[in-house]
Amino acid sequence: MSGAKLGAKGISYTRFLGLHTFVFGLPDNSQLKVDFNYYPFPRINTSKKWGKIAIDSVEDIAVNKVHTISVKPRSRDFIDLYFLLKDKKWELSLPRLISLAKIKFDWDINPLQMGENLAKVVTVKDLPRMLVPFDQKEMENYLLRLAKSLESDIFEN
């Protein structure tokens, strides 16, 4: 999609390590930010192609979100994980995503750290502009329940 098709007044591009970011200035003075990232990690599932661009599977995206939240949570990662886990058509679960993250990143996700970081959902302030109905309190409660579900892994034996 070109900037002209969006009616963009301008496009800026930045690159940081493997992250390529395009920001489109739209006619209503809002901005659309699109990130393309390179992960040097194997995919869990075969990617789909859109033109020459490889698109991660929903499961890979969810695994990436779990890994990111375990390291450095951001509001957008909480929101993405919330919507991915709530949508039953994907058949995703936190325990499965944690197991897959270990395989993909060769990195153990500590259940205490994961629970602690999920609990940070109540402190996020930098919420993006939402394009779908969204209840922040509902997301907070959902992710806090997920954090609590890790208790048995934290206190085992």
Structural class, by secondary structure, is alpha+beta
Oligomer: single chain
Q: Tally of extended strands?
A: 5
What's the story with the biggest beta sheet? 3 strands, antiparallel
SSE order, one letter for each helix or strand: HEEEEEHHHHHH
Low-confidence stretches: none
* Number of helical segments with 4 or more residues: 7
Task: Trace the largest sheet across and list its strands.
Answer: 1-2-3
- How widely separated are the two ends? 54 Å
Strand content: 15-25%
Number of domains: 2
Give the overall form.
globular
Helix content: 40-55%
InterPro entries: AbiEii
Pfam family, one: AbiEii
Descriptive overview:
- This protein has 157 residues and is an alpha+beta fold.
- It has 2 domains: 1-38, no CATH class; 44-154, no CATH class.
- It is built from 7 helices and 5 strands; from the N terminus they run H-E-E-E-E-E-H-H-H-H-H-H.
- The strands form 2 sheets. The chain has a 3-stranded antiparallel sheet, with no helix packed on it. A two-stranded antiparallel ribbon has the order 4-5.
- Helix 2 (58-71) crosses helix 3, helix 2 packs across helix 4 and helix 2 (58-71) packs across helix 5 (111-119).
- The model has no long low-confidence stretch (mean pLDDT 93).
